[in-house]
Please model this.
Amino acid sequence: MMTIQGFWFFESIDNALVAKELLKSASDWLKAKGLNKMIGPENLSTNDTIGILTRGFDQPPVIMMPYNYPYYERLLKDCGLTPTMTLFSYLMKTDSMPTNLLNRAELFENRLQKSGIQIRTIDLKNFDNEINALQPVYNSANQGNWGFLPLDTVGFQHMAKEMKQLVNDENILIAEKDGKIIGYAVTLPDFNQVFKKIPKGRLLPFGWYYLLTGRNNILGLRIIIMGVLPAYRGQGIDWCFYSKITAYAKKKGILWGEACYVMESNLQMNKMLKLLGATIVKEYKLFEMNL
Model:
């Protein structure tokens, strides 16, 4: 029976001996627990950052995405690990979105409305109730995705409340039918553009000024996650989400969006993003090793 566990937060100088000792300690501990395969770098779950950056080092990371030295991939391979999962970041330029595809989204939305499906923004004044209704949909929509671990109520509320500080209502789109949520899309302004200007990364005493004055001058956003319940897929809800995200970006003067993570194995999402004119700008990898 295959029993698997991950290693987290891998950091090392460019020295194979150092990396090997680190990973040996991790693998020895896992073997002592009866496990026979190690995967990483991971996090507490796939709801957080995972993998290492292996392509796109010339681009700054968007909010809540990892960055590391290019030699990390070589170190992991030298230690006997092999790639097991590849994930992409796609760049979408607001002024390059194909007009014919955005028009198709309008047709989809008209058809959806006739079948009782509406797409709206989240009600931030009713945030707690919205999040409680979203949680089971989030878990169901991601069921079966590689490495996905469902979030319980406490975990989902914690994740949502962290994001609430950074979003407005147009950053969270909800698809619903007869008042019940069936899909969602979440974006975040790329606050890294502001954070990197804050002296020493400290909000006090003057960092708050940079945050408050800079948040309206952010030129990019991250498309964090999008999901639709299986019974409602293939009806164009995802096209409508992208159309509304594009309209929001144009209204706010946002020049680009980065969709990440997108698993290499998610053929449908990769195909859709390419149809929308998006290009892969970053690549991340997870590695594995038999113990």
